[in-house]
Amino acid sequence: MKALGIKQATAPLAEYVRTVGEGPVIVSVKGKPVAALVSLENADWETVRLSNHPEFLALIQRSRRRQKKEGGISSNELRRRLGIRQAKQVPTRASTLPPPKHRGGQRKATKAARG
């Protein structure tokens, strides 16, 4: 991270942009951070716009408050309400493995139970 006061931030913006791969560039006024130049990874224009849009942020905040107060619904319930079929379960590695072999005492107990 590179931090500098606004009076020291005299280089062209392009120079600071070239350094954000090493970490954010924070600009402060009277010791208080007022701006940050950060690297964007895996972000498209829509994501960048929405992440700073006041109305969208207010909507997210209202939704989080409502969910905390009233609770939410499961993805299965959402699918049911929207009339969307349940997705098929993708088998996990554990479910595709053969059952474990019996060992020692467990096998003897099984034979004794057959009796």
Q: Strand sequence of the main sheet, in spatial order?
A: 1-2-3
Percent in helix? 40-55%
Q: From the alpha carbons, calculate the radius of gyration and give it in angstroms.
A: 28 Å
User: Which shape, going by the Cα principal axes?
Assistant: elongated
The class by helix and strand makeup works out as alpha+beta
Number of DSSP strand runs: 3
Order of helix and strand elements from N to C terminus: EHEEHHHHH
Strand content bin? 5-15%
Largest sheet: 3 strands, mixed
In round numbers, the mean pLDDT is 84
Parts with pLDDT < 50 across at least 5 consecutive residues: 106-110
- Report how far the terminal alpha carbons are from each other: 73 Å
Number of helices: 6
In words, what does this structure look like?
- This protein is of the alpha+beta class and 115 residues long.
- Among the domains are: 39 residues, 3-Layer(aba) Sandwich (YefM-like fold), CATH 3.40.1620; 40 residues, no CATH class.
- 47% of the residues lie in helices and 13% in strands.
- A three-stranded mixed beta sheet has the order 1-2-3, covered by helices on one side.
- The longest helix has 17 residues.
- The radius of gyration is 28 Å and the shape is elongated.
- The termini are far apart.
- About 4% of the residues have low confidence.
Highlighted features:
single chain; 115 residues; alpha+beta; YefM-like fold; three-stranded mixed sheet
Fold blueprint:
Elements: E1 2-5, H1 13-19, E2 25-29, E3 32-37, H2 45-51, H3 54-70, H4 75-82, H5 93-96, H6 104-114
Parallel strand pairs: 1-2
Antiparallel strand pairs: 2-3
